[in-house]
């Protein structure tokens, strides 16, 4: 157990340059929230729902992080800052996932009124930026990044970077893609794909206008030459 805790603390230190020691990480609210969730989840699995909820409410009061006792969490979840994070009952989180403040792993209301898988699944090594909302029983595949304030309502491909509302996948170069960890799920020089398309269309329109102006100038020059020659011959 001690070795497992040390490995967990080291995994957090690898993703956060702020702490000077493992002792400092022990004070992180995200660490406390995950630890109390382990207890609440064990009680939930034992059908001790009231006690599970009690531990859940205690954790939320202490940390500002609300993790439903039914949520399934893998190894080395890092909730950085954490205030305002909400994780729903049927959410599933893999190993080495990083979540920042204000994130919601929210559920959808089933049309038939029967509860089932209503919340997202985050696979291994996913990064979710602050304020992002991942809604419904969607799957965020391994090593994907969800940028700050993005709203995800569809499955996310492996290794994709999602930005915008609704979130869209955007390409990154190989060097950026291969980086082990990118805080907040961000990517340098990456913008909303919809905005990129508009900018591309604007550039194409400007090029077409320049080409049209050049063609009109050539036409006017060609039309002026015969007239000038005719005028000289009459003189």
Question: Which key terms come to mind for this protein?
Answer:
235 residues; five-stranded parallel beta sheet; alpha/beta; 6 helices
Can you tell me the residue ranges where pLDDT is under 50 for at least 5 consecutive residues? none
Structural class category: alpha/beta
Total strand count, please? 15
Compute the number of helices: 6
Distance between the termini: 107 Å
Q: Biggest sheet, in brief?
A: 6 strands, mixed
Strand line-up of the largest beta sheet? 3-6-9-12-14-15
Q: Which strand-content bin applies to the residues?
A: 5-15%
What's the topology here?
Layout: H1 2-15, H2 22-25, H3 29-45, H4 49-63, E1 66-67, E2 72-73, E3 78-79, E4 86-87, E5 92-93, E6 98-99, E7 104-106, E8 121-122, E9 127-128, E10 133-135, E11 139-140, E12 145-146, E13 151-152, E14 161-163, E15 168-170, H5 174-177, H6 193-234
Parallel strand pairs: 1-4, 2-5, 3-6, 4-7, 5-8, 6-9, 7-10, 8-11, 9-12, 10-13, 12-14
Antiparallel strand pairs: 14-15
Helix pairs in contact: 3-4
């Amino acid at each position: 157990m001690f070795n497992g805790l040390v490995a967990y603390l080291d995994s957090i230190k690898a993703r956060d340059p702020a702490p000077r020691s493992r002792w400092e990480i022990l004070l992180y609210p995200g660490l406390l929230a995950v630890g109390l969730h382990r207890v609440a989840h064990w009680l939930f699995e034992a059908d001790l729902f009231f006690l599970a909820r009690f531990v859940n409410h205690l954790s939320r009061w202490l940390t500002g992080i609300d993790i439903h006792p039914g949520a399934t969490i893998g190894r080395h979840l890092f909730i950085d800052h954490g205030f305002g994070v909400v994780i729903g009952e049927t959410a599933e989180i893999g190993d080495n996932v990083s979540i920042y403040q204000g994130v919601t792993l929210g559920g959808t209301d089933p049309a038939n009124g029967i509860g089932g898988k209503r919340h997202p699944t985050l696979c291994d090594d996913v990064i979710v930026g602050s304020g992002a909302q991942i809604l419904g029983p969607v799957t965020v595949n391994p090593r994907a990044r969800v940028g700050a304030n993005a709203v995800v309502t569809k499955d996310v491909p492996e290794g994709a970077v999602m930005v915008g509302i609704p979130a869209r996948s955007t390409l990154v170069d190989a060097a950026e893609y291969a980086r082990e960890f990118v805080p907040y799920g961000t990517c340098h020089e990456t913008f909303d794909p919809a905005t990129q398309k508009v900018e591309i269309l604007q550039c194409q329109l400007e090029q077409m206008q320049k080409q049209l102006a050049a063609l009109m100038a050539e036409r006017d020059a060609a039309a002026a030459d015969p007239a000038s020659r005719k005028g000289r011959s009459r003189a």
